[in-house]
Amino acid sequence: MTKKKLDFLSGESVINCGKLLNFGCDNSRYSKEVKNTIGAKGVYIIISDKQRYIYPKKDSKVIYIGKAVNLFSRIERHRKRLEWNISKNDSELKYIWDNDRYLYMRNHGANVYYIKAKTNKPAMKLESEIMLEFYRKYQATPIGNGARSLKVVAQ
Known about the structure:
Distance between the termini: 34 Å
Shape: globular
Largest sheet: 5 strands, antiparallel
Helix content: 25-40%
């Protein structure tokens, strides 16, 4: 199990699932980390392979922070959407605004990390805490989350 400490998280380390495009390969090749996400609720963090994004206070490789009742299913949906995005050319994507996060992943690579929610802490509360820690450190939400995520942090 590969753990990583993210500079904006004061508490737990995150566990690496690997590259987003390799996440759902086939059942016989799932890593132990990927198998651990099946049926688990928690928060996942998608981090760029090579690009650091400029935020008001500091730069970071974090593209997206999300929550899931079933981490495996949710990350798998991101993988399929990224594959779809990669199969399109730029002119086909020109007016699809909700694909911004996938353009970042497509152009800069994407690794998935996760934190399982404890039974006494729902995934939504964990996500809000992590988003708030990110916001405090960088004075912004991750580039792929957009402005809607800030409403969750403010609640």
